[in-house]
Amino acid sequence: MFETSGPWTVPVRAPAPAQATIANAFARQGRSLHTGRNAAVRVSPAEAGTGIVFRRRLRNGLAITVPALWPARVSQPLCTALQASDGTLVRTVEHLLAALSALAIDNALVEIDGEELPIFDGSAAPWCAAIRDVGRTELAAPRRMIRVRRTVEVRDGRRSLRIEPAPSLSIAASLSLAHFGEMRWQGAITPETFQRDLAPSRSFGRLKWALPTKLYAYATGRPLLRGANLSTTAAIFGNRVIGGMRVPDEPVRHRILDLVGDLSLAGHPILGHVTAAHTGHELNHALVAKLMRDASAWDFV
């Protein structure tokens, strides 16, 4: 953009994008994937600079707060979990975080009365619908974004994840499953592409592994896949998804959905191109931690 005054042409910097929050609060409830318990969630607007913050209400009346930031992340099976300084957990946060991030919501307070967010149908579509229903409102503060300055990569056997400089967030991912071959998706992560191509994709698993895992969880008392069933996951049996895929190559698209949510734990939108092969939560978090710990690999814009 240029502004002309007399014989000179003076460059004028475009205004920085503004931070945003949801326009009104919304509440949802449902059964959780791993604990199998019902949970009630309320997502409320928050002021600029808050970020995404979870607040878990305990039975003794206390409320424990934990920010959705990578240092608070702890390893838990088959989900993304955050842990407060006193050890309180909030987990399976990745689908809500992905929806908030892709729909450009920078600040929100998420209150929950249990350990785990509802899984709904296994996708991020219900969260996107809730955010659309209440709307988005911009705040009087500029949006800071993380610009990747050089390539950062993590690997674990055949699994790999790489991020490199790019003007916006884009992802190219591949995943190979027995009887399905290689599945791929690539594109820019925008509110439109996320809601159309990625949000409908569901958590998935093979029945031959899920059923023994559920039995083991009940026998040992571990909260693992207790809420998994044909209405909360895409169940794979042999060479097909029971009931069919919602979108082409649904499993790889869901891995990207999870990746968008995990990347949001950097605390600000990321400008970079991600290449992913067979990635999952552990590798996603390894990449975020490696990127954020290397101050020479990124800067704020």
From TrEMBL:
GO MF annotation list: metal ion binding; UDP-3-O-acyl-N-acetylglucosamine deacetylase activity
GO CC annotation: membrane
Key words of the record: Hydrolase, Lipid A biosynthesis, Lipid biosynthesis, Lipid metabolism, Metal-binding, Zinc
Protein name according to UniProt: UDP-3-O-acyl-N-acetylglucosamine deacetylase
Residues the record marks as active site: 281 (proton donor)
Record EC number: 3.5.1.108
PANTHER family assigned to the protein according to its UniProt record, in alphabetical order: UDP-3-O-ACYL-N-ACETYLGLUCOSAMINE DEACETYLASE 1, MITOCHONDRIAL-RELATED
Protein role: Catalyzes the hydrolysis of UDP-3-O-myristoyl-N-acetylglucosamine to form UDP-3-O-myristoylglucosamine and acetate, the committed step in lipid A biosynthesis.
BP-aspect Gene Ontology terms: lipid A biosynthetic process
A Pfam family matched in the record: LpxC
Cofactor(s) the protein requires to work: Zn(2+)
Organism of origin: Methylobacterium planeticum
Catalytic activity: a UDP-3-O-[(3R)-3-hydroxyacyl]-N-acetyl-alpha-D-glucosamine + H2O = a UDP-3-O-[(3R)-3-hydroxyacyl]-alpha-D-glucosamine + acetate
Top-level taxon: Bacteria
Pathway membership: Glycolipid biosynthesis; lipid IV(A) biosynthesis; lipid IV(A) from (3R)-3-hydroxytetradecanoyl-[acyl-carrier-protein] and UDP-N-acetyl-alpha-D-glucosamine: step 2/6
Family annotation (Gene3D superfamilies): lpxc deacetylase, domain 1 (3.30.230.20), lpxc deacetylase, domain 2 (3.30.1700.10)
Residues the entry annotates as binding Zn(2+): 95, 254, 258
Gene for this chain: lpxC
Family: Belongs to the LpxC family.
InterPro entries: Ribosomal_Su5_D2-typ_SF (IPR020568), UDP-acyl_GlcNac_deAcase (IPR004463), UDP-acyl_GlcNac_deAcase_C (IPR011334), UDP-acyl_N-AcGlcN_deAcase_N (IPR015870)
Keyword Metal-binding: yes
